[in-house]
Amino acid sequence: MKVLFVSNDPAIFDVASAARARMRAYAEAIGELHIVSVAPPGAQEEQDENLFLHPVQAWKIFRVRVLAERAHALILAYGIEVVSAQDPFEHGLAALRAIAGTSARLHIQVHTDFLSPWFTRSGNWRSPHVRMPLLNSWRRSIALRVLAQASGIRVVSERIKESLRETYGNRIVEPTVIPVAVDPVVPEPVRLPPHPWFTFALIAVGRLEPEKRIEDIIAALKLVAAHYPTVGLFIVGEGRDRAKLERMADKLGLADKVVFLGNRPDARALMASAHAFIQASAYEGYGRTLVEAALARVPIITTDVGIVGEVFKGYEDVLAVPVADPTALSLSIVGLIEDNAVREELPRHAEDAARAHLAAVGNLPSRIADDLARTITRP
Known about the structure:
Helix content: 25-40%
Oligomer: single chain
């Protein structure tokens, strides 16, 4: 089978990266895998056994057109049978345009819960206002059009599958649920940076972008700190919102209670040294860090997104709260501080749930290859 991925992952051009290793495994299962992707300057055409990399460089406003033109040329040059886009938005639109006039079939990967109301919503009266990208409304409209043209759809959670069913009914092919890859090997714990104020340390891990709603965690910490002044928060990750979040912490008088660690390759190892992991995402397609936190045996506080309810049950495995509700987050933090039994029981249950989930996932490259093959045979 000859497959083309339309991607946006420059890491695949790094021969030593985890992304390259993952693509090699996919290529072995598929037979012949081509990837066209935005690449770092200087990246060259490359063949790594049966994996073929095709870099492009383009300004964002021209990216759809450039990706579509390059993908179309690759379809004709290599006899591509399936074109799989990494999302139903810009890359899905590029893939849809690329297959025009060819016999290649369209396959779409959906890693984001774009039908969640929080994909475009900025907040409510209980929460800080978090401006979501204006492009998200356009992306949703594009996705609704692209998915209706797809011969195969892969989603990463039952939550996304059900939202697509409710929206489309039988106007789309039956989506296949294939989770994302999570390494089940747990690294040795790494101590958090010393901080004399903290007797209870929270950790948040993720991109500092609007959809992660780190603002809600900081607002919750303000509520908790009034009664538990030695609670602190470590934030691992980088993003466009870092400066804004630093200003917010300073404005709320929390500059000595919120520590920004930036990107850390040992993020998973740091989790195990915290007293609790906290996530306030507006939406998630899957939620890899939840699985990683569960494997690290740290209590989890999370919004009801992604695989919460599917892999992790609220108040059995994790403490789950509504999106954009700092008060609910603060009550969960206090609950963990005050209840030793909950702090001990939740991580055990969450780890069991995570390991059962990973055991059921099976061989991801083979499952992905099978899903792509079904795309060819569908009428």
